[in-house]
Amino acid sequence: MHQHIGIVACSAEGAALCYRTICLEGEQQLGRHDHPEVSLHTHSLATYMHRIYANDWPGVAELMLSSAGKLANAGADFLICPDNTIHQAFDLVEHRSPRPWLHIAQQVADEAQRLRYRRLGVLGTRYLMESQVYPGKLQSAGLEYRIPGASEREKINQIIFDELVHAQVTPRSAAYFTEVIRNLAGLGCDAVVLGCTEIPLIVTPESSPLPVLDSTRLLARAALRKATAV
Fold it and tell me: Is pTM beyond 0.90 here?
Protein backbone atom coordinates (compact mmCIF):
# COMPACT_ATOMS: atom_id res chain seq x y z
CA MET A 1 0.00 0.00 0.00
CA HIS A 2 1.34 3.43 -0.93
CA GLN A 3 1.61 6.43 1.37
CA HIS A 4 -0.78 9.33 1.03
CA ILE A 5 0.94 12.56 -0.15
CA GLY A 6 -0.24 15.89 1.26
CA ILE A 7 0.51 19.02 -0.77
CA VAL A 8 0.67 22.29 1.16
CA ALA A 9 0.09 24.64 -1.75
CA CYS A 10 0.62 28.39 -2.03
CA SER A 11 0.58 29.58 -5.65
CA ALA A 12 -1.61 27.75 -8.13
CA GLU A 13 0.67 27.06 -11.09
CA GLY A 14 3.53 25.57 -9.07
CA ALA A 15 1.17 23.41 -7.03
CA ALA A 16 -0.62 22.26 -10.18
CA LEU A 17 2.65 21.28 -11.85
CA CYS A 18 3.71 19.35 -8.75
CA TYR A 19 0.36 17.53 -8.57
CA ARG A 20 0.38 16.70 -12.28
CA THR A 21 3.95 15.40 -12.05
CA ILE A 22 3.02 13.06 -9.21
CA CYS A 23 0.03 11.71 -11.10
CA LEU A 24 1.62 11.42 -14.55
CA GLU A 25 4.99 10.03 -13.42
CA GLY A 26 3.25 7.82 -10.88
CA GLU A 27 1.45 6.18 -13.78
CA GLN A 28 4.78 5.61 -15.53
CA GLN A 29 6.10 3.82 -12.45
CA LEU A 30 3.03 1.99 -11.21
CA GLY A 31 1.00 1.20 -14.30
CA ARG A 32 -1.92 2.56 -16.27
CA HIS A 33 -3.85 5.29 -14.43
CA ASP A 34 -2.13 4.48 -11.13
CA HIS A 35 -0.53 6.89 -8.66
CA PRO A 36 -0.40 7.34 -4.87
CA GLU A 37 -3.28 9.04 -3.08
CA VAL A 38 -2.83 12.83 -3.09
CA SER A 39 -4.58 15.60 -1.18
CA LEU A 40 -3.96 19.33 -1.64
CA HIS A 41 -4.87 22.33 0.47
CA THR A 42 -4.09 25.98 -0.03
CA HIS A 43 -4.94 29.28 1.57
CA SER A 44 -5.35 32.24 -0.73
CA LEU A 45 -2.11 33.48 -2.28
CA ALA A 46 -3.15 36.98 -1.23
CA THR A 47 -3.25 35.86 2.42
CA TYR A 48 0.29 34.52 2.10
CA MET A 49 1.51 37.63 0.28
CA HIS A 50 0.14 40.03 2.91
CA ARG A 51 2.32 38.24 5.47
CA ILE A 52 5.34 37.99 3.18
CA TYR A 53 5.17 41.73 2.38
CA ALA A 54 5.10 42.39 6.13
CA ASN A 55 8.08 40.06 6.70
CA ASP A 56 5.77 38.07 8.99
CA TRP A 57 7.27 34.61 8.69
CA PRO A 58 5.63 33.31 11.89
CA GLY A 59 2.33 34.25 10.21
CA VAL A 60 3.35 32.34 7.08
CA ALA A 61 4.20 29.36 9.29
CA GLU A 62 0.71 29.46 10.82
CA LEU A 63 -0.85 29.24 7.37
CA MET A 64 1.36 26.29 6.48
CA LEU A 65 0.49 24.56 9.76
CA SER A 66 -3.20 25.18 9.13
CA SER A 67 -2.91 23.39 5.80
CA ALA A 68 -0.81 20.66 7.41
CA GLY A 69 -3.52 20.00 9.97
CA LYS A 70 -6.24 19.78 7.34
CA LEU A 71 -4.14 17.41 5.25
CA ALA A 72 -3.33 15.23 8.25
CA ASN A 73 -7.04 15.01 8.98
CA ALA A 74 -7.58 13.99 5.37
CA GLY A 75 -5.20 11.08 5.88
CA ALA A 76 -1.89 12.37 4.48
CA ASP A 77 1.13 10.43 5.72
CA PHE A 78 3.69 13.13 4.87
CA LEU A 79 3.76 16.62 3.42
CA ILE A 80 5.42 18.61 0.67
CA CYS A 81 5.23 22.29 -0.21
CA PRO A 82 5.74 23.18 -3.89
CA ASP A 83 6.61 26.79 -3.08
CA ASN A 84 10.22 27.75 -2.47
CA THR A 85 9.59 31.21 -1.00
CA ILE A 86 7.51 30.09 1.97
CA HIS A 87 10.17 27.55 2.90
CA GLN A 88 11.64 30.53 4.74
CA ALA A 89 9.13 29.59 7.46
CA PHE A 90 10.02 25.88 7.33
CA ASP A 91 12.04 25.88 10.57
CA LEU A 92 9.01 27.36 12.36
CA VAL A 93 6.78 24.63 10.95
CA GLU A 94 8.65 21.35 10.98
CA HIS A 95 8.80 20.73 14.74
CA ARG A 96 5.12 21.64 15.21
CA SER A 97 3.74 19.74 12.25
CA PRO A 98 1.39 16.78 12.65
CA ARG A 99 3.19 15.02 9.76
CA PRO A 100 6.80 14.86 8.49
CA TRP A 101 7.89 16.98 5.53
CA LEU A 102 10.25 16.79 2.59
CA HIS A 103 12.26 20.02 2.07
CA ILE A 104 12.31 21.29 -1.51
CA ALA A 105 15.87 22.69 -1.36
CA GLN A 106 17.19 19.43 0.05
CA GLN A 107 15.86 17.56 -2.97
CA VAL A 108 17.64 20.03 -5.26
CA ALA A 109 20.89 19.73 -3.31
CA ASP A 110 20.70 15.93 -3.43
CA GLU A 111 20.19 15.95 -7.20
CA ALA A 112 23.01 18.45 -7.73
CA GLN A 113 25.33 16.21 -5.73
CA ARG A 114 24.24 13.17 -7.73
CA LEU A 115 24.99 14.96 -10.99
CA ARG A 116 28.33 16.27 -9.63
CA TYR A 117 27.57 19.95 -10.12
CA ARG A 118 29.80 22.32 -8.21
CA ARG A 119 28.32 25.84 -8.44
CA LEU A 120 24.62 26.54 -8.89
CA GLY A 121 22.84 29.67 -9.99
CA VAL A 122 19.67 30.15 -7.96
CA LEU A 123 16.58 31.79 -9.49
CA GLY A 124 13.32 32.52 -7.74
CA THR A 125 11.32 35.34 -6.20
CA ARG A 126 13.36 38.17 -4.73
CA TYR A 127 12.41 36.88 -1.28
CA LEU A 128 13.76 33.43 -2.10
CA MET A 129 16.99 34.58 -3.78
CA GLU A 130 17.82 36.84 -0.84
CA SER A 131 16.92 34.22 1.79
CA GLN A 132 18.78 31.35 3.44
CA VAL A 133 16.47 28.64 2.05
CA TYR A 134 19.04 27.39 -0.47
CA PRO A 135 22.42 28.54 0.92
CA GLY A 136 22.22 26.28 3.98
CA LYS A 137 21.22 23.16 2.05
CA LEU A 138 23.70 23.76 -0.77
CA GLN A 139 26.62 24.55 1.51
CA SER A 140 25.92 21.45 3.60
CA ALA A 141 26.16 19.47 0.36
CA GLY A 142 29.51 21.08 -0.49
CA LEU A 143 28.03 23.19 -3.27
CA GLU A 144 28.73 26.81 -4.15
CA TYR A 145 25.98 29.11 -5.40
CA ARG A 146 25.42 32.48 -7.04
CA ILE A 147 22.34 34.68 -7.38
CA PRO A 148 21.61 37.38 -9.97
CA GLY A 149 22.38 41.04 -9.25
CA ALA A 150 19.91 43.36 -7.52
CA SER A 151 18.28 44.77 -10.67
CA GLU A 152 17.95 41.29 -12.14
CA ARG A 153 16.37 40.01 -8.93
CA GLU A 154 13.76 42.77 -9.06
CA LYS A 155 12.93 42.08 -12.71
CA ILE A 156 12.67 38.32 -12.15
CA ASN A 157 10.40 38.94 -9.16
CA GLN A 158 8.17 41.21 -11.26
CA ILE A 159 7.87 38.61 -14.04
CA ILE A 160 6.98 35.88 -11.54
CA PHE A 161 4.20 37.83 -9.81
CA ASP A 162 2.83 39.74 -12.80
CA GLU A 163 3.00 36.93 -15.35
CA LEU A 164 4.01 33.45 -14.26
CA VAL A 165 1.61 33.02 -11.34
CA HIS A 166 -1.11 33.68 -13.93
CA ALA A 167 0.47 31.18 -16.36
CA GLN A 168 1.40 34.00 -18.74
CA VAL A 169 4.63 33.50 -20.70
CA THR A 170 5.86 36.22 -23.07
CA PRO A 171 8.79 35.92 -25.51
CA ARG A 172 10.33 39.04 -23.99
CA SER A 173 10.33 37.59 -20.48
CA ALA A 174 11.59 34.23 -21.72
CA ALA A 175 14.49 36.01 -23.42
CA TYR A 176 15.23 37.86 -20.19
CA PHE A 177 15.48 34.63 -18.22
CA THR A 178 17.82 33.23 -20.87
CA GLU A 179 20.04 36.32 -20.53
CA VAL A 180 20.14 36.01 -16.73
CA ILE A 181 21.07 32.33 -16.92
CA ARG A 182 23.80 33.14 -19.44
CA ASN A 183 25.17 35.70 -16.97
CA LEU A 184 25.19 33.05 -14.23
CA ALA A 185 27.16 30.77 -16.54
CA GLY A 186 29.64 33.62 -16.87
CA LEU A 187 30.02 33.52 -13.07
CA GLY A 188 31.12 29.90 -13.29
CA CYS A 189 27.79 28.22 -12.57
CA ASP A 190 27.43 24.77 -14.10
CA ALA A 191 23.67 24.43 -13.50
CA VAL A 192 20.72 26.65 -12.57
CA VAL A 193 18.10 26.04 -9.89
CA LEU A 194 14.55 26.86 -10.97
CA GLY A 195 13.82 27.91 -7.40
CA CYS A 196 10.33 29.23 -8.02
CA THR A 197 7.81 26.55 -8.85
CA GLU A 198 6.43 28.66 -11.73
CA ILE A 199 9.77 29.16 -13.51
CA PRO A 200 9.51 25.81 -15.38
CA LEU A 201 6.70 27.48 -17.33
CA ILE A 202 9.22 29.85 -18.92
CA VAL A 203 12.58 28.04 -18.64
CA THR A 204 12.93 24.55 -20.09
CA PRO A 205 15.95 22.26 -20.40
CA GLU A 206 15.91 23.03 -24.12
CA SER A 207 15.85 26.83 -23.74
CA SER A 208 18.29 27.20 -20.85
CA PRO A 209 21.98 27.97 -21.46
CA LEU A 210 22.73 25.82 -18.37
CA PRO A 211 21.41 22.44 -17.19
CA VAL A 212 18.34 23.00 -15.03
CA LEU A 213 17.42 21.71 -11.59
CA ASP A 214 13.63 21.93 -11.61
CA SER A 215 12.67 22.20 -7.94
CA THR A 216 8.99 21.53 -8.63
CA ARG A 217 9.50 18.24 -10.41
CA LEU A 218 12.37 17.15 -8.15
CA LEU A 219 10.11 17.57 -5.11
CA ALA A 220 7.28 15.69 -6.82
CA ARG A 221 9.62 12.82 -7.73
CA ALA A 222 10.99 12.65 -4.19
CA ALA A 223 7.43 12.44 -2.90
CA LEU A 224 6.70 9.65 -5.35
CA ARG A 225 9.75 7.70 -4.20
CA LYS A 226 8.78 8.08 -0.56
CA ALA A 227 5.13 7.23 -1.15
CA THR A 228 5.87 4.11 -3.17
CA ALA A 229 8.72 2.77 -1.02
CA VAL A 230 6.34 1.24 1.52
Answer: yes
